[in-house]
């Protein structure tokens, strides 16, 4: 199993006292599988994605990537995980304005020591960015910028791709096209994909769906 999440609990301290946002989440994801994470606003989807991505730690429960319990990793270990093994795509593109498109795409793969120029060329071509490689992010449309962000995430060939509303900023036609590409490329690399989405249409394109309600699997 690529990803095993067992009995995850997370409580935030708020001005009104403790708020338990995740209340015992279990999920599994195999290599090559795509899972849509749906649920109302505030149900805990982003929190869960952050925990799986090692951006935060659960209060209780376990998250295994392959045989590795990510709770046992220190900050450096979690940072290394995010550079190479787990790729994260957020709604905000977070491209580096001073770097050309080609260098933005290669950025994380270079940090992880996993840069493969031939794979980057394939990604750029399939994402329709072949003519944009020498441009800077500000010279691109929103849809193009999001495709650069996705290519950057896929460049180190992560085993697990986590995406939080990755097409939320795009119009419907562009969102569908970008999701198609993402599914194709994830399938091509045999990675697993866990994607938060509010769109039922997008969720229907994935192999499975998990619905959260008030911090539990509905
Ligand atoms: N750092 C924090 N401190 C306190 N409360 C938080 C924190 N982060 C999130 N929350 C609260 O936890 C709940 C779940 O937030 P989360 O972002 O995981 O939900 P979500 O399902 O992703 O929502 P959305 O679909 O609106 O993005 C919300 O009520 C939110 O206000």
Automatic annotation (TrEMBL):
One GO term in the molecular function aspect is: ATP binding
Keyword set, alphabetical order? ATP-binding, Cell inner membrane, Cell membrane, Membrane, Nucleotide-binding, Transport
Span of the secretion signal? none
Keyword flag Membrane: yes
> Listed GO cellular component terms?
membrane protein complex; plasma membrane
Q: Where is the ABC transporter domain?
A: 3-218
The record ties this protein, via InterPro entries, to:
AAA+_ATPase (IPR003593), ABC_transporter-like_ATP-bd (IPR003439), ABC_transporter-like_CS (IPR017871), ABC_transpr_LolD-like (IPR015854), MacB-like_ATP-bd (IPR017911), P-loop_NTPase (IPR027417)
Q: Which CDD domains does this UniProt record tie to the protein? A: ABC_MJ0796_LolCDE_FtsE (cd03255)
Pfam families tied to this protein: ABC_tran
- Asked if the record carries the keyword Cell membrane, the reply is yes
Similarity comment text for this entry: Belongs to the ABC transporter superfamily. Macrolide exporter (TC 3.A.1.122) family.
Name the record gives this protein: Putative ABC transport system ATP-binding protein
**What species is given as this protein's source?**
Yoonia maricola
